[in-house]
Amino acid sequence: MAREKCFSNLSSDESSESSDALLPEKDDHLDLLDSSSAIQTKPGWKAMPYILANESIEKMATYGLTTNFMVYLVREYHMDQVSAANILNIWTCGYSLLTVVGASVADIYLGKFLTIALASLATLVGMVTITLTAFVPQLRPPPCFIDGQQHLEHCISNTKTQLGFLVVGLSWLAIGTGGIRPCSIPFGIDQFDSTTVEGRKSVHSYFNWYYTSSTVVMLINQTLVIYIQDSVSWAWGFSIPTLLMSCAIALFLAGSRIYHHVKPEGSTYVSFAQVLVAAYKKRHLKLHDDERVLGVFSDVSLDGNVVLSKLPLTAQLR
């Protein structure tokens, strides 16, 4: 493959004035591209009901649990608004950073499917933990009471054990979110053959359905779920998203035999570093201007099943 042959010549003489050594046989490369396209068998839209439904339900569950969470901390845990906002900001920052970890784990070790499955279980554990704080009175401070003589409302602050139990639930939720968010969209794209015109059109349709479902989910969470939490009970308002998350996991696993599973191919950061090293070591080489370089620098994945799309070769920044 072009990338392997490119990096295998890193130790070549830097004083060379030609890039002939970098050019593989073009016919063999094109044959490899043709054979890789022939091997690809992807489910396409057959897998979308499982993926889109799982993604929609998962967002409805996690957003339904956290959209109104600051009000829950102020009312039930008797926190001031600054403390409640700090907890939510730390949690948001935590799962945002964990998305980098989740993406790296999927690319290097587990793959997208297994990462999403394990992260979904972690999310469910976090949601069950937080739901228990609404069901079990001992896991949160007692209700505030009014002093009959002074007519003042007295509220007991949360203990370290109660706060710790809540933080454990948020931590599991952050781990799960960090694994699901960076893998959900790429996993859906993996189900389509992006080397064909029809496959690329299907990818665009998938994006439309993905963001449409996200908008509908946000609308439901901002109306129905918040109404249940505020007007009915926090226990029901948390248990419904938790049950939905259980359904999302079952639905996602039900389509495991249909999905196209892409094997882990290493970290993107390593490839980026390799490009920088190769560019530095080959800075004196002159690239040919003729047709011998056409099609040479299109990389093929290690398993030969996916053709990675590249920008067209130009003469800029030589």
Structural summary, described in words:
- With 318 residues, this protein is mainly alpha-helical.
- It has a domain at 43-140 and 156-255: Growth Hormone, Chain: A (Up-down Bundle), CATH 1.20.1250.
- 64% of the residues lie in helices and 1% in strands.
- The protein has helices at 2-8, 26-39, 48-66, 69-76, 81-110, 112-135, 160-189, 197-232, 234-254, 268-281; strands at residues 145-146, 153-154.
- Strands 1-2 form a two-stranded antiparallel sheet.
- Helix 3 packs antiparallel against helix 7 (160-189).
- The longest helix has 36 residues, at 197-232.
- It is elongated.
- Mean pLDDT is 80; it is low at 1-19 and 22-40.
- Residues 1-22 are annotated as: Disordered.
In the CATH hierarchy, the architecture of the domain at 43-140 and 156-255 is Up-down Bundle
Mean pLDDT: 80
> What is the CA-based Rg, rounded?
26 Å
End-to-end Cα distance, whole Å, is 23 Å
CATH topology name of the domain at 43-140 and 156-255: Growth Hormone, Chain: A
- Count of helical regions: 10
Query: Into which percent range does the helicity of residues fall?
Result: 55-70%
Q: What is the name of the CATH superfamily of the domain at 43-140 and 156-255?
A: MFS general substrate transporter like domains
State the assembly state of the protein chains: single chain
N-to-C order of helices and strands = HHHHHHEEHHHH
Shape: elongated
Q: Report the β-strand fraction as a percent range.
A: under 5%
Using the coordinates above, name the CATH class of the domain at 43-140 and 156-255: Mainly Alpha
Q: Tell me the strand order in the biggest sheet.
A: 1-2
Please count the beta strands (DSSP E, at least 2 residues each).
2
Structural class label: mainly alpha
Low-pLDDT runs: 1-19, 22-40
Major pleated sheet? 2 strands, antiparallel
Protein name: Protein NRT1/ PTR FAMILY 2.13
Keywords: Membrane, Transmembrane, Transmembrane helix
Subcellular location: Membrane
GO molecular function: transmembrane transporter activity
